[in-house]
Design a protein that fits this description.
The complex is a heterodimer.
Chain A lengths: L8 E4 L3 H12 L7 E4 L2 H8 L16 E4 L8 H10 L8 E5 L4 H9 L4 E4 L4 H18 L9
Parallel strand pairs in A: 1-2, 1-3, 3-4, 4-5
Helix pairs in contact in A: 1-5, 2-3
Chain B lengths: L1 H82 L5 H11 L1 H4 L3 E11 L3 H9 L22 E9 L16 H13 L3 E2 L3 E2 L8 E10 L8 H7 E10 H9 L8 E7 L8 E4 L2 H6 L8 E8 L2 E9 L7 H59 L4 E5 L4 E4 L1 H7 L3 H4 L15 H12 L7 E6 L5 E13 L2 E11 L1 H23 L4 E4 L5 E4 L1 H7 L3 H4 L10 H17 L3 E8 L5 E12 L5 E9 L1 H59 L6 H32 L4 E4 L1 H15 L5 E5 L5 E4 H18 L6 E9 L3 E8 L9 H4 L18 H11 L4 E5 L5 E8 L12
The chains are: A alpha/beta, B alpha+beta.
Chain lengths: 151, 869
């Protein structure tokens, strides 16, 4: 939360407990300090497009991934996804839908809008932790992003 | 016109009256004259015939008398012989010369004595004749019997008187002629005087014919009563030879009794030339070759044992006296003269009558003209016209009557009209009644009758009787007929057609009416009467205002007027309040009809749509309801969806928190927790996890209700094997045998059926866990309408008493410790099968395994394609 320059992942999660548990899981693979957490869709968009409260953020600073919950206050996750994928540059950012919903229509809609991955959050923490760690290490370490290309 | 009449008048009248009358009388007179002439002539002719007959009879008698007189002469000769034993030549000659036969008996050629000479006496006989000098002193030295020769018997002519001219006969043996011989023998045998037929005379002259009368001579002293005695006593014959011409012309001698009668005499009864004895017409025929006698008669005469036929002819000079003969001519001429005289008188009378008529003409011209014209009219009328007298006798019939009936006037006139057979019997009473009334002088109106024509056709006539009066009294009845057979036929056809139409119109279920220009009904069908509730008699001639409320009638009137004015067909929804006060809603079609006379009518066809309207409204209500319900359903569905969406999202988050933080506590603060505390935290995590599973199953179950069924042909065989393979992967440690018989294919949602088998086989696997070797059998059985599938296991089974709970949501028959699971699996099976229109049930006993059955319909019409809540 400190230096925006080091931020590689944006976590969009309204549920504080979930957010804490996710960050805890990510902490196990030392990713927690590279994650910036916002609590609603509006904040998420402001952050991504460096406006409002995040106007000072260097727009060029590319994210390696956005972990996006779908059920969000103000602007919901699918709308956030739509706006990201509608933007010429922002669409390059991989978006991982990370949600409780196992509804088929959500899955279909998310992929339709251009989600790069869809992960249902298991109830059991061990499972959740395992899933988060895998997703995090994949997108941040394994995946060749535009950021690592120095763009 | 008047001039023409004056010129033509006298001739016309003369022709009309005088001429016919005069000609008539003259003709009568002339014909009477001819009759008188004819009868006179006939009577004169008859008188002449009587005269002829009388002359014939007289002549006949004369002939008979003459011949009999001649025969008498021979009897005299016979008595000469009877008187003396022998008759000498001189005695013979003396006797006959005394008789003066040539004078007294004209036609006698010779009287002779013929002696029978036997063969032995021939010479003696010849010698005695030679030497007989009693009459001539020298005797007859040259005498001999000829023809010469010796014969058994001879009959020799011994005496001939007069001798001069007949010398050739002397000495002749008459037996040499065979025919003569036979005749003589018969005469000898009978003893009677006989006469020969026509014989040629030996007088030396050509064509001399005559007859010979013969008498037998017997010996004096011998009996002659029998034939044998007569033969024995036979001495010879006496005969007399007559020249026929002389004999018969001598009949009348110098004293000609009937010179106007000619006659022919034939020997025998055949009138042929070879039998002709005498003919006093031969001369006449030379003079008049073409003579045809006025009378002629043939008559037979029996004489001297022979039959002669006498043919008498009236000679040209035959006749009555002159006065008598001329009588017919006199009658004729007098009659004719008288006739012409009468003609002259009548003619002059007629011409003077014409003068008088001419004077009267001026007064009667008009009447006459009208009568004439009337007669012409009747004659030339195209319609039959007849007149009957007061008694019903047919007095006249015009040519049209003849033409129509086929009867001629001459076969009908004078007959009593009712008995002519022309009238059809059924028409009789009316006709008689009408005739009687006409006779009473009443003018009658036309009536219909039927008649039979001569060729038996039946015609219908319109009869128009009219009394014809003279001086106020009906003298005749004139009847003018009109042949209306065709019209009647057309009327019948039309009536039949109208009936036919009426029937159709009345059998139509929709009310139909026809109104005239004044909006009054002229036709209503039964359906209309029934519809409005009034009778046809009440409706016809009335208008809508007489039966319906004013506001309704106003509408009808307005619509009618529109059609009358524009001629356009209209279709309107209208309101009718019927006789019972019930209001109907109708759809009325109104069309303009213009008849041949240009009169306008409205033809209306009404359809009572009251019921239809009600139904329509009901359907609309139902639809509204349905729409509302559907909307509610959709809303509810939407709500449910957002509910389950929320559940999906929000219900798990707290669980995750519980599980997550319990885990964090275990990880971070494990040292500060007692073992018991750590176990509790583990339990919290386990429960949170199982609640998460519950939520997932519940959501899956709820999703199933909303999902559309996507039917396709499913190979259940492959599907089951595939499912089992998946399950087998998760339980590598278990020994499970799957028995699959050939399964029927299903027409169902492939994913759902897969779910069904997944759940059932998983269940079977789960509940066979205690068995060392689990055996799961999947099979199917095809019925008529559905296919039954089953999944059988050899597991723990269940108590059949709890079978009702098996398929309920979250219903479990075993503890979670025993067999894990949320109790949603069978509920999902049941929901899927129900949505396919099938059934599910189960059989089982504790520890003896269980069988789960479900059916799938064979046809495609599966129920429950709509979401079930």
């Amino acid at each position: 939360m400190t230096d925006l320059k080091n931020i590689e992942v944006l976590l969009v999660e309204d549920n504080a407990s979930d957010a804490e548990l996710i960050l805890r899981a990510l902490g196990k693979i030392h990713l927690a300090e590279k994650v910036f957490h916002v609590k609603d869709g509006a904040q998420a968009l402001d952050f991504i497009f460096a406006r409002g409260a995040y106007a000072l953020r260097r727009e060029q600073t590319a994210l390696k991934a956005v972990f996006l919950d779908l059920k969000l206050p103000k602007i919901d996750g699918l709308e956030v996804l739509r706006q990201i994928k509608a933007d010429e540059r922002a669409r390059m950012i991989p978006v991982v839908v990370l949600t409780s919903s196992q509804e088929e229509r959500d899955v279909i809609e998310a992929y339709r809008l251009g989600a790069n991955s869809y992960v249902a959050k298991p109830v059991d923490f061990d499972e959740l932790s395992k899933a988060i760690c895998e997703v995090g290490s994949y997108w941040v370490f394994l995946n060749k992003s535009l950021v690592s290309q120095g763009l | 016109m008047n001039v023409t009449r004056r010129i033509g008048g006298p001739f016309y009248l003369f022709r009309a009256y005088g001429a016919s009358l005069i000609v008539f009388f003259v003709l009568i007179l002339l014909s009477s004259t001819f009759f008188a002439w004819y009868y006179t002539k006939k009577s004169i002719s008859r008188q002449a015939y009587i005269k002829f007959e009388k002359a014939v009879e007289e002549t006949k008698l004369l002939i008979k008398d003459r011949v009999e007189l001649y025969i008498q002469t021979l009897y005299g000769v016979q008595s000469l012989f009877a008187a003396s034993k022998t008759v000498d030549r001189d005695e013979w000659a003396a006797y006959l010369r005394k008789q003066n036969i040539r004078e007294r008996y004209p036609g006698i050629v010779a009287v002779r004595f013929i002696e029978r000479v036997a063969a032995k006496d021939k010479t003696a006989f010849t010698e005695s004749v030679k030497n007989d000098k009693s009459l001539v002193p020298s005797g007859y030295p040259d005498f001999q019997i000829y023809p010469p020769g010796e014969r058994d018997e001879y009959c020799v002519i011994k005496y001939v008187e007069p001798f001069e001219g007949n010398e050739k006969m002397f000495g002749s043996d008459i037996l040499t002629d065979q025919e003569r011989s036979k005749f003589l023998k018969e005469t000898r045998d009978t003893g009677d005087v006989t006469m020969t037929g026509r014989v040629k005379l030996m007088t030396g002259q050509e064509n001399q014919v005559g007859v010979i009368i013969v008498l037998p001579i017997y010996k004096n002293n011998m009996p002659v009563s029998t034939m044998e005695e007569r033969r024995a006593a036979h001495e010879g014959f006496a005969d007399a030879v007559f020249r026929a011409d002389d004999l018969l012309s001598g009949v009348f001698g110098k004293k000609v009794v009937h010179p106007e009668i000619g006659f022919q005499v034939y020997d025998g009864e055949t009138l042929s030339p070879e039998n002709l004895l005498y003919d006093d017409e031969s001369v006449l025929r030379v003079i008049y070759p073409d003579f045809k006698p006025r009378f002629s008669v043939a008559s037979t005469l029996k004489i001297g044992g022979r039959t002669w036929t006498l043919r008498f002819t009236a000679l040209p000079e035959f006749g009555l006296n002159e006065t008598e003969e001329k009588l017919p001519l006199v009658v004729l001429s007098v009659g004719i003269i008288f006739s012409f005289l009468l003609f002259g008188i009548l003619y002059s009378f007629a011409t003077s009558r014409i003068q008088a008529v001419l004077l009267a003409e001026g007064m009667t011209a008009k009447l006459r003209e009208s009568e004439h014209r009337y007669a012409d009219l009747v004659e030339g009328a195209p319609d039959p016209i007849i007149t009957l007298d007061r008694l019903g006798h047919l007095k006249s019939m015009n040519p049209a009557s003849e033409r129509v009936s086929g009867y001629r006037a001459n076969e009908m006139l004078g007959k009593y009209f009712a008995r002519t057979g022309v009238l059809v019997p059924s028409s009789m009473p009316r006709t008689l009644q009408e005739f009687a009334l006409a006779i009473l002088g009443r003018e009658r109106s036309p009536f219909e009758i039927e008649i039979f024509t001569k060729d038996k056709r039946k015609l219908t006539l319109e009869a128009n009787p009219r009394p014809i009066k003279q001086e106020g009294k009906t003298v005749e009845v004139q009847i003018i007929f009109r042949d209306i057979t065709d019209r009647k036929h057309t009327e019948n056809v039309l009536r039949e057609f109208t009936n036919y139409l009426d029937k159709i119109i009345n059998s139509v279920a929709d009310p139909i009416f026809v109104k005239n220009r004044k909006h009054r009904w002229v036709l209503v069908n039964e359906a209309y009467c029934h519809f409005v509730g009034y009778k046809r008699e009440e409706l016809i001639g009335k208008s809508d205002y007489d039966f319906f409320p004013k506001e309704e009638a106003d509408v009808f009137l307005e619509k009618d007027e529109f059609v009358f004015e524009t001629g356009r067909e209209t279709l309107n929804e209208e309101k009718y309040t019927d006789a019972h006060g019930v209001t109907h809603i109708t759809l009325t079609k109104k069309t303009l009809y213009v008849d041949t006379k240009g009169e306008k009518f409205i033809v209306g066809i009404v359809r009572d749509i009251t019921e239809l309207k009600k139904t329509e409204e009901m359907i609309r209500d139902l639809n509204e309801n349905l729409k509302r319900r559907n909307f509610e359903l959709l809303t509810a569905n939407g709500e449910l969806e957002s509910f389950s969406y929320s559940v999906s999202h929000d219900l798990r988050a707290p669980l995750r928190a519980i599980s997550g933080f319990a885990n964090a506590l275990l990880e971070d603060c494990a040292d500060n927790l007692s073992p018991e505390g750590r176990r509790y935290l583990t339990l919290i995590r386990t429960n949170a996890k199982s609640m998460g599973k519950l939520i997932d199953d519940l959501l899956a179950f709820s999703r199933l209700g909303r999902k559309e069924i996507d039917l396709s042909d499913v190979s259940v065989n492959d599907l089951v094997k595939d499912v089992f393979k998946d399950i087998k992967l998760s339980i590598p440690e278990r020994a499970v045998e799957l028995k699959v018989s050939q399964l029927s294919n299903a027409h169902a949602d492939s994913a759902m059926i897969r779910q069904v088998f997944m759940n059932l086989i998983s269940n079977a696997v789960k509940f066979t866990a205690p068995q060392k070797k689990a055996v799961i059998e999947v099979g199917s059985k095809e019925g008529d309408k559905e296919t039954v599938y089953y999944v059988k296991d050899n597991g723990v089974g269940f108590d059949i008493r709890y079978v009702g709970k098996l398929f309920g949501v979250f219903q479990r028959l075993h503890g979670v410790e025993e067999f894990e699971g949320t109790g949603v699996g069978l509920a999902i099976v049941k929901r899927i099968i129900h949505r396919h229109g099938g059934r599910v049930w189960a059989e089982g006993k504790p520890n003896e395994g269980a069988v789960f059955y479900f059916t799938l319909p064979k046809s495609q019409n599966t129920q429950g394609s709509q979401p079930i809540l």
